Amino acid sequence: MLRLFLRKYRTMILASVFFFYLGCCLTINFTRIECAFKTSSKNELETRVQSLSKAQYVVIILSSPNNEPKRDAIRATWGNFVNNIFVENGEIINKWNHTRISKQSQQNVVKLLFVVGTLGLSGTKADKLGNEQKRYKDFLILENVEDSYKNLSLKLLNALSWISENLKDMKYVIKCDDDSFVRIDLIVKDLDAFAPSMNAPKLNKFVTFKEHLPTYKGLYWGYFNGHAEVFLTGKWQEKGWFLCDNYLPYALGGGYVISRRIVDYIAQNMDFLSSYNAEDVSMGVWTASLNAINRVHDVRFDTEWKSRGCKDNMLIRHKQTTSDMFQMYKSLAQSNGEKLCNTEELHRKTYFYSWNVLPSSCCKRN
């Protein structure tokens, strides 16, 4: 009976054995490939950290997985300004149209990182983001953070923690959004020349200080607001806010600068820090009690909820479309970096922050 069964189903049995062994071989090989991929990714990350480790100025751009067109616009426009900054005879030099300078002069002084959270991201979106990373290698991917508006402060905390741990030569972090146009070259030029005191005749017509001290333990530089009302409803609702009737003074999130000691302080205490929906509000709270931090309000930061217009001396312009970015980049290219705007114009008044009054009276527009 058994012999008859084997003869009748011989082909099927042989085929089953063949596919069983084939399946085993494929499983082993795919396991090896997966392990090799993980090793490669780990090595690639280590190599990338090494290439970033010498950066003195780090630009972190909060982005979201779906915003590839905005990232591409930045890469094609103001992201190129990092190439205006190079080292010559041991000094940082800022020179427009530096492309004729030998590549050996480039010391990776400035690095750009798009910060994106990928927790819970669908396979298709994750694959697309992975391909973008392979092409440009300019992401800081936070695998433990879900990318959403309510997690902006968490994204910032994790980004600063990573920078503090891995980028030991970093002096300053420039934080911005992916709808901001940033004159990295001019910001770094001023930082290199005047930070952390930022007390120079060249800057006096643009800045106001909380206090003048002989020495500072850090720098917090941007366009400050001290009388913003707390959002109690809507998208920006802050259910956990309890400190006072208004937000504490903070530099608006379209773009600001913080120094290494602030970054390290936040990274070392991130488990104890309260977070709010708006990451710029959170930064104001995190730094509120820090002593001898030079808080500098600068009217060249156009970082409010709506752009004030365009002036050639602006360092950051928030709420810009990709078309706006290409237009400003074209204007700068045609003027050797002198003209940011086709036509200078202001749609809204600015203000100089009054540090010697209560925050409710801080921000009277001119």
UniProtKB/TrEMBL annotation:
Compartment(s) where it occurs, according to its Swiss-Prot or TrEMBL record: Golgi apparatus membrane
Cofactor(s) for this UniProt protein: Mn(2+)
Membrane-topology descriptor: Single-pass type II membrane protein
MF GO annotations: galactosylxylosylprotein 3-beta-galactosyltransferase activity
Organism per entry: Papilio xuthus
Transmembrane spans: 12-31
Domain of life the protein comes from: Eukaryota
Keyword vocabulary terms for this entry: Glycoprotein, Glycosyltransferase, Golgi apparatus, Manganese, Membrane, Signal-anchor, Transferase, Transmembrane, Transmembrane helix
Name of the protein this chain belongs to: Hexosyltransferase
UniProt xrefs under InterPro entries: Glyco_trans_31
Pathway: Glycan metabolism; heparan sulfate biosynthesis; Glycan metabolism; chondroitin sulfate biosynthesis
GO biological process, one term: glycosaminoglycan biosynthetic process
Family under the similarity heading: Belongs to the glycosyltransferase 31 family.
One GO CC term on file: Golgi membrane
Record-listed E.C. numbers: 2.4.1.-
